[in-house]
Amino acid sequence: MGQTLIESLRRKFPNAQFVGVGGPKMAAAGCRLLADPTRNAAMLLGALRQVGYWVRLLKEIRREFINNRPDVVIPIDSPTVNVRIGLMARRMKLPVCYYVAPQHWAWAPWRTRKLSRAVNTLCCVLPFEEPYFRQQRINAVYVGHPLFDRLAQQPTAAVPASPFPQARLKVAILPGSRSSEVASNLPVMLEVASQLRGRVQECAFVAAAADKNRALQIQAHLMRSSERIEVRTHVTDAVISWADLVLVCSGTATLQVASHYKPMIVLYALSRWKWNLAGRFLVRTKYMSLVNILADRELVPEFMPFYGSTRPVVQRAVELLKNPQQRMEMSSQLSQLVSPMERFSRQMQAGDRVAVEVARLLEPKLQPPSQPVPPSRG
Question: What residue numbers bound the domain in which 194 lies?
Fold first, then answer.
């Protein structure tokens, strides 16, 4: 996301210099990195070490603000740290354009007051977020979702290195992109797959891994089970396109599945005690999966938080697999849901819209100096 935003900003400001916190892709786009958190995995183990790392990094960012005063600060996603960066920048009279609005509408909405002090402009990636944050007196602008930018640039799914298994019915497994998500969700999804084999004839399964590390993690789980499931890496769109039904971890991945108009079942495994201790008091939305929140109804089955028996999940999966008409209806409804977002992204990419908002913040600096009025000779 940071890389594509830099590319958009460079098109609008060819001589701009970029300094930030990010990974190799941002560096390749020409950003001087103050830090690369992706290379500090060992240091970030454990909550105390993680806090220490970010405290030191915030101090480094503050020094950068003082020594090389930026024209604009653009925090991207990750509100836990980025809201603090925004507050720091605003205290130093630096304009802040925050990209990817925090999901305060979903839980802990009282944090919006702090967010309002941390931004000049808030760039939202979901259409309902702009009116929500404007009601909170924040200058919010809907810029579109970067997922649809990527799909517009790559309209067809990547061709896999080897063919996917052929079967009468095909199920994709998307357990998540983070190690913790795979650890929680994959065992549940494998149990569902095991039960489906006994109830649905000629059913094949493929698991999608976000990267090599997740692929190794998934394969380690499979070695401890009797399930015969192929694992494919870096071809998630192709796996989704292949499937008749997708078992997907909650998050942006549900929007990715919806962009293919594929029927899905959404779940997120969470222990009962964690949900009862905190989750049920924090969550404010009627639905918890992004697709259902956008639709404002249960368009797709969601099991969130999931704990207990997999029987209800298996039952819904069997119903969908055995009923092509149900799958077609869900596909049609998903198409109607995401088509407006797709059209919006085709008009202008999210990064380019953010660049427009950045230009608005920079207008006072970009204005040519006013010419002095010559003295009257009267």
Answer: 169-341
Asked whether 31 and 22 are in contact (CB, 8 A), the reply is yes
Residue 253 Cα to chain centre, angstroms: 8
SS3 (DSSP) at 2: helix
CATH number of the domain residue 104 falls in: 3.40.50.2000
**Are residues 337 and 355 part of one domain?**
no
Pairing of strands 169-174, 140-142: unpaired
Compute the distance between CA of residue 80 and CA of residue 104 in angstroms, rounded to an integer.
12
Q: Residue type at 274?
A: K
Task: Please give the pLDDT value at position 228.
Answer: 85
The answer to whether residue 78 sits within a structural domain is yes
Chain centre distance of CA 19: 23
Clarify whether residues 144 and 274 are in a common domain: no
Angstrom distance (rounded) from CA 262 to CA 333: 10
Tokens 């569902």 -> residue: 192
Asked if 202 and 327 sit in the same domain, the reply is: yes
The full length of the chain comes to 378
Assess contact for 294 and 142: CB atoms under 8 A: no
Other beta carbons within 10 angstroms of residue 174's beta carbon come to 28
Q: Are residues 120 and 186 in the same domain?
A: no
- CB-neighbour burial class of residue 187 (10 A; exposed 0-12, middle 13-18, buried 19+): middle
Domain identity same for 117 and 178: no
pLDDT of amino acid 192? 95
On whether the CB atoms of residues 195 and 216 are closer than 8 A, the answer is no
Domain count, the chain: 2
Q: Is residue 64 part of a domain?
A: yes
Do 288 and 226 lie in a common domain? yes
For the segment 312-322, what is each residue's pLDDT rounded down to a tens digit?
Answer: 999 999 999 99
How far is residue 151's CA from residue 230's CA, in Å, rounded to a whole number?
24
> pTM value?
0.87
Residues of the chain with pLDDT under 70: 38-49, 152-161, 271-285, 366-378
The alpha carbon dihedral of 16, 17, 18, 23 has a sign of positive
- Say if residue 211 is in the same domain as residue 81: no
Residues 317 and 355 in one domain: no
Q: Which amino acid is at 257?
A: V
**Is 217 within 8 Å of 180 (Cβ atoms)?**
no
